[in-house]
Amino acid sequence: MAKGTTIRMWRRTIFVLVVLIAVGFGAIIFSLARLQLVEGESLQTRAVDQQLKDTSISAQRGTIYDCNMKPLAQSATVWKVVLEPAFITDKNREKIADGLSKILGMDKNEIMERSKKKTYYDELKRKVETDVKDEVLKFKSDNEIGSGIRLIEDYKRYYPYGAFAASVLGFTGTDSQGLYGIEKQYDSYLTGVPGKLVTAKNAIGTDMPFQYEQKVEAQNGSSLVLTIDEVVQHFLEKNLQEGVITNKVGNRACGIVMNVKTGAILGMAVKGDFDPNNPFTVADQTEAAQIAAMPEGTAKNDALKAAREKQWRNKAVSDTYYPGSVFKMVTGSSAMEEGVVNENSTFFCSGSIKVSDRTIHCWRSYGHGSENFVQGLCNSCNPVFVQLGERLGPDNFFKYFTAFGLTAKTGIDLPGESRSIFYTAAQLNPVELATESFGQNFSITPIQMITAAAAVANGGYLVQPHVVSQIVDADGNIVKTADTTPKRQVISTDISQRMCKILQTNATIGTAKNGYLPGYRVGGKTGTSQKMDVFQKTGTMQYIASYCGFAPADDPQVAMLVFYDEPHGDSYYGAAVAGPVFSRTMEEILPYLGVERKYTDTELAKLDVTAPDVVGKTVAQAKADLVKIKLTPKVYGSGEKVVSQVPEPGKTIPQNGTVVLFMDDSGASKTATVPKLVGLSLSAANKRAADAGINISISGAALTNGNNPISNSQSIAEGTKVAPGTVVTVGFIEPNQVE
Amino acid sequence: MTKTKEKQHAAPRGSRKAEADRDTKEPATSGIRKKFRIFSVRSGMDMPFLFLILTLLVIGLVMLFSASYANAYYRHGSSYFFISRQAFFAVLGVAAMIFISYFDYHHLHKFAIPILLVSFMALALVLFTPRINGVHRWIDLGPLGQFQPSEVAKFGMILVFSHLISLNFKRMDTFRYGVLPYILILGATVGLLVLEPHISATVIMVILAGVMLFIGGVRLRWFGLAFGGAGAAVAYLVLFTQKFSYANDRIVAWLDPFSTASKAIMEDTWQTRQSLYAIGSGGLLGLGLGQSRQKYLYLPEPQNDFIFAIVCEELGFIGALIIIILFAMLVWRGISISLKAKDKFGMLLGIGLVVQVGLQVVLNIAVVTNTIPNTGISLPFFSYGGTSLVILLAEMGIVLSISRTSAIEKT
């Protein structure tokens, strides 16, 4: 027998070898093939799931511009301070917590605790300004902290004008999501698409050094170009706010300025609004103090919530009201269009009218007597419009009511638009029809009212009110442009033009004359509506004073609605409360918008003149020049020739005004004190101004054929020291004007 | 003994082998002196086998570096922590291997019983060391790192079995000489291993012993008896004792490594899951050398038992297959060498050592791929471990020594 391998050993060894190779190696190769080739993809997906981490990259929210590209809302870069506990060692933990707590004003112990978390990402503080970021960076470099604190770019919303156009703009929440106003309505456009930074991480969550990094850039949000004009908005807000104070308005006010041809909203203001930079702060200080004084608890929280919701609510689109007499322009237009009335149709007002079994009173209890349609509208005579409603009948009345867009939302691109409440044709029995004819008994929103008024003015074409004219993407491409084509024609162009003339008459000599502006051909209608719902609840009658008008009446361009809810001043009538605000605002925005003044002869006779240049002339010459154009010279000093004059050459000066001539340098020290010029008749105001040695320029109702205008505003405050001869503009209204 | 061996070997095996023949013939002319030579260079060693060892060793070192540097960096502060140590032991091991290949393996007859006794002592000693991960498995050799007595025990058993079988070859069909001594040795070894506990080593020991006895000519009926007895014992332990609860948990984890049933199971299967993720991520072609993601602390200790998962992730199925084929070739070549060894001692010793390598490869990759439950088996030439690498290379040196007198063609 051999010493080496026997046959049996051979056989058995080969058996072992075959088993080892075939079964053993075969099995592991089979397993590998299954795992890598068959299940590979799904295992890889699971592996990648745990290996990758997403870091969100904020997208910059789009800017909101006014129509002249002035930014009204923009996002600026701020910073997120992020703790990376995985990188913080026990050695530097204390130092980091201490440093950060000081810079960020946070609790040190809290930072200590959070730095011990088993994670690599813990947001410490958001929306940190750049100066704080720099402090953190300095702290890092000073203490040679390489990792453990990270700063990530973020954005914060700024409203550079503060409490301005707040109801339109709305505001954003902490994550820059739009919560109210345009910010909410156009949130999807403004937001953009956040980017992603996908990096590989190891099992403890820190970055893996192998090259896997995928960056999906954030897509910045689109910007909006509004139809709002910052200048128009500014004038509107200023005058609206003044009115709120003078008239002791209890439940906020709103004003809308609209381009009647396109539906573009040039200005929309709510007073009793908020600062979108701090939307959660109650802006009304009295209310804020009341809430602050309340004991902690549900009641306080509820009060706070209610106050916030109130200030955020956009009255112009969310509140409904009885439009009152303003609505008469709609009834009048409808009746003229249907041919049931014309300018010369005659009516008789006895002070009331009987409809079915009800007696409906005119606002003037003793009646207007015999009047034609134009006079009826100028008088805002209820019985006239009750008769127009009767003549139209429920079906026609409702047809026009619908056509003027009062049954449906206007579809303005702002959130929270309310539905109107009204009777359908079938529900309109005579009494309801009669009351609706003069604007009571149905509720619409201010935006619906001005849209209907714009249709009356704009050749009968009903336009789509809107606040955004263009959406521009981050690369500057125009994504969307507002459609300004009219929705439909409600009344004929002829009727529209005739109605404009009637409303112009109304704003010149009628109940709406407080909206009058010389040269601007204003057409308008006042409204005073009773808040029946409040009366039924509390027993006290509250009013809404409104004025709706447009200019110029021969080619209407701009319409404006001013609306005061619950005025508690000297008057609650639209004519006295809203009219002056309307005219003052129009006086400022019409020249800005480039609407030309065209004076009638009557207006020309009362127009201001330009002060001639008499400097350097002798006293005699100067006096002669001034007298020639009916100005009164007043001489100070004893020089040979005129050294200076007030008003200066080229300045406007009322007719029959005084020009002060200084013959030596003493003029610089001479002053006059502006006297109290409000609450006076035209002649009294003139006299007081002359006594004080100043000039007055009159505006408002005193320029028309008014009865008893009384001044209610002066451009320079009482008691101010001014140079003699300075021109103070004094506004006049017809205080007793009702309706 | 040596004289007769030479005769068997004297026949020329082809013209190309002239040099090898001369080497084998040379010592024959001075047979007397050879008796006293520890080193008996009779012939060249088997070059294909050496080449396979060195190839696997180099690939193993490269992969160890790739798999370990992230872990080394995070745990030890230096990316080179593992590779520098392993490279040192590799050089030491290769030197030992070459040195031992010149050593006449017949001298090992004399060492068989002493080494067995040393391994018993080491296995007993390890039971008094502090537990690491709940088991007594390592003896700390200070600067030389940790050392597993089971490594020595495996060698000791292979050696003593080869020794006894070759001496009692003709009586292998008897119980007294063919079964009893081996049962006693195996029983003692397994008993000590179970106390550690060290299931994987136990399994390897039992299979190795079976293979050696099988080849050594033990009657098949004893195997039937052994399988029956082992089955009954395992069934008893699993069913009626808590001893194998440790194994039971692993079996639960094995059946569904993605189970989210309990936190304990999820923690238990973490390693297996991460291994499967790594293997799956590799796909056909792999992520590329050095590109593993799972080695970034996902796969615990990627330099140890689960290194092959990283190999699969980086080199893909193709790369893994090539490595498995290299191992298979190593086994094949080693067995071929052994079959042509000039005596039964060399044959059995060679087969024992080579099968041990093959068995470890199969079991290791089976664990990594979750083909069998997770148990600690290192991958030869790849897994980190200085002493075990040196022992492995020394064992390969013995195979090379056998190859010097083997009748195999050595190119």
Describe it for me?
The complex is a heterodimer of chains A (739) and B (411). Chain A folds into four domains: 32 residues; 171 residues, Penicillin-binding protein 2a (Domain 2), CATH 3.90.1310.10; 281 residues, DD-peptidase/beta-lactamase superfamily (Beta-lactamase); 127 residues, Trypsin Inhibitor V, Chain A. Chain A is elongated, with a radius of gyration of 37 Å. Chain A has 24 helices and 31 strands. Chain A has 739 residues and is of the alpha+beta class. In chain A, the strands form ten sheets. In chain A, strands 2, 3, 4, 5, 8, 16 and 17 form a seven-stranded mixed beta sheet that branches. In chain A, strands 10-9-21-20-19 form a five-stranded antiparallel beta sheet, sandwiched between helices. Chain A has a three-stranded antiparallel beta sheet with strand order 1-6-7. In chain A, helix 3 runs antiparallel to helix 5 and helix 13 runs antiparallel to helix 18. The model of chain A has no long low-confidence stretch (mean pLDDT 87). Chain A starts with 6 loop residues before the first helix and ends in a 6-residue tail after the last strand. Chain B is mainly alpha-helical and 411 residues long. Chain B has a domain of 271 residues. Chain B has 16 helices and two strands. Chain B has a two-stranded antiparallel ribbon with strand order 1-2. In chain B, strand 1 and strand 2 form a beta hairpin. The radius of gyration of chain B is 22 Å and the shape is globular. Chain B starts with a helix and ends in a 6-residue tail after the last helix. The chains are: A alpha+beta (739), B mainly alpha (411).
